[in-house]
What we know:
Layout (H helix, E strand, L loop, with lengths): L11 H8 L6 H9 L8 H12 L2 H5 L3 H4 L7 H24 L6 H12 L6 E7 L5 E9 L9 H10 L4 E7 L9 H15 L4 E9 L2 E4 L7
Parallel strand pairs: 3-4
Antiparallel strand pairs: 1-2, 1-3, 4-5
Helix pairs in contact: 2-3, 6-7, 8-9
Amino acid sequence: MTLLKLPEQARPREKLLAQGVAQLSDIELLAILIRSGNQGLSALDIARCLLQTFGSLRGVMTASKAHLCKVNGIGETKYCEFQAALEVNRRQLAEPLHERSMFHSADDAKLFLRAQLRDLNQEVFAIMMLNSQHHLLAFRKMFTGTINAAAVYPRELVKQALTDNAAAVILVHNHPSGNPTPSQADIALTRDVKKAMDLVDIQVLDHFIVADNQVSSLAQQGLL
């Protein structure tokens, strides 16, 4: 059955307009992004197949291009639209951090960092550049490693912080293992970077570790 043959109140777009987006199922939300079917499949059919294949909305939205495009009805255009939807979400999460002090937006910062790093399969080391009011200037992904390690060079971090005219920074990296506990290497690196930043009068305010739905703070643990 195509969407046009469904009763109007059962069509995802009409349901959204009549009842609000929160009333839509995961399948219906995906169907709106997919927009149209092909090869005898409706957008709802394709959405249902995606959820069965990848297990969840998060699984669908973070699937690689190669895996996503294996699903009947999904091609490069729809993959690009999914990626654009993800990036819109990431950028809107960053907006409060540009407008308010990082310390007044701790929950916003954690949401933003989770959206940026939690679904990566490799360890990525990033840095949040802040101005003197601790508003976000830029978020830079600096180094990428294997599944559990990234080589980090303090000199390059200092160079980028000076380029961005940062007054303070927050270090960030992810643990693909899902364990947010800082390692001894994490602690040693944090102290090395802090010493390097001190030489150019840039504060290191914290080091966050992102592990799935958890974000831990070395400063809160007294490890900075």
